[in-house]
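A further point concerns the way the authors explain their paired sequence and structure data. Showing the layout once, in full, would remove most of the difficulty. For illustration, here is how one protein appears when written out as sequence plus C-alpha cells:
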Amino acid sequence: MDEVAGAIADPVRREILAMLRERRMPAGEIADRFAISRPAVSRHLRVLRASGLVHDELTGRQRLYRLDPAPLVELAGWLTTFLPDGATTTGERVAAASGRFDALETEVYRTRRERRRPAASGEPAAIDREERSA
C-alpha cells in the first residue's frame, strides 16, 4: 500500500493514471502529452509499473500501457476508515474526512512542537537527540 500511495503522490503520475483510465496507450503518446522529457515520463511509468498500477505489453513495435486499478482498492479501503459510517454522499464524506484530517494536522503540529521543546532538566530538545543518533 505504501508503494501505491507513493506512486500516486506525484501529479504527473496521477495524470498518467487518468489518461490510462480511458484506454491503453503507447509510451510515446503518453509522453507527448507532457512538457517534460521522454526519459522523465519513462521514469514515472517505471514507478507506476513497480507499484502494480500499470502494466505494459508489447504489441508489434509498440509497448502499450494499461491501468490496473486493483492496487488502489486496498488504499481506498484504508482511506474509507477515516470516513464516518453515516456519510452517504460524496459531499458528506469529503466534509467528514476534511474534519478528521484537520484533527490529524493539529496532532502532527502538536507532536512537532513537543519534540522541539527542550527538556526541563536542561537536556537538549528531543529533536536534537534524534538527529544526533541518526
Notes: The radius of gyration is 21 Å. The first strand starts at residue 25 and ends at 26.
